Every structure is written in C-alpha cells, then in structure tokens.
Amino acid sequence: MKILSVIEKNIQPKDYGSWNSNMQVIETDEGIYIDNLVGKSFGQFPCGYNWSQHIEGSESIDHLNIKIRTSRGYKWLNMG
C-alpha cells in the first residue's frame, strides 16, 4: 500500500452516532481511509499517525504495523 495524499477534513458518521470531527483522510493506491489527527484520539481509537510523511515515497507502508478497520461507515487506517 502506498500513500498518495493526506488531507484534513470534517467527517460525520455515515450510519450512526452523533460525532463529527476533523480527521485525516488518507488516499492510498488501495482506497480511501480515515484516521484521527496527529495528537488527537477519538473513542477507542488512539492518536492519529502522521501518514503525510509517506506521501510520494516509492516505498510501501506494508512494513508498518498497520490495522485496517471498518467502523461507522468508514475504513480506518491505524497504527497497530
């Protein structure tokens, strides 16, 4: 998996819940994911990882301890 872009965007739940928060939206060569902002946690999810440091790199992030989860209508990319 390679990181193509990372932007900060206000995200609201797709299926249930009342939260909305600025999140990282991470575009990869395998799809779109979200993560908390760096330094901010949300519920069971820890502080976000700085995904932008991997933009435009030729190396895959597959060697990182990543977890992909689906929750509240979104795919989440988190450090494991």
Report what the structure shows.
By secondary structure, the protein is mainly β. The chain is built from no helices and five strands. It has strands spanning 3-11, 21-28, 31-35, 66-71, 74-79. Strands 1-2-3 form a three-stranded antiparallel beta sheet, with no helix packed on it. A two-stranded antiparallel ribbon has the order 4-5. The mean pLDDT is 87.
Q: Can you give me a brief rundown of this structure?
A:
Helices cover 0% and strands 42% of the residues. It has no helices and five strands. The chain has a three-stranded antiparallel sheet, with no helix packed on it.
The tally of strands reads 5
| Helical content (DSSP H or I, runs of 4+) | under 10%
Main sheet overview: 3 strands, antiparallel
Compute the average pLDDT: 87
Q: In what order do the strands lie side by side in the largest sheet?
A: 1-2-3
Termini gap? 15 Å
Q: How are helices and strands ordered from N to C?
A: EEEEE
Percent range for β-strand residues: 35-45%
Taken from the alpha-carbon principal axes, the silhouette is: globular
Count of helical stretches: 0
Radius of gyration: 12 Å
Query: Which stretches are low in confidence, meaning pLDDT under 50 for 5 or more residues running?
Result: none
* Class derived from helix and strand content: mainly beta
Question: Which SSEs are present, and which pair or pack?
Answer:
Layout (H helix, E strand, L loop, with lengths): L2 E9 L9 E8 L2 E5 L30 E6 L2 E6 L1
Antiparallel strand pairs: 1-2, 2-3, 4-5
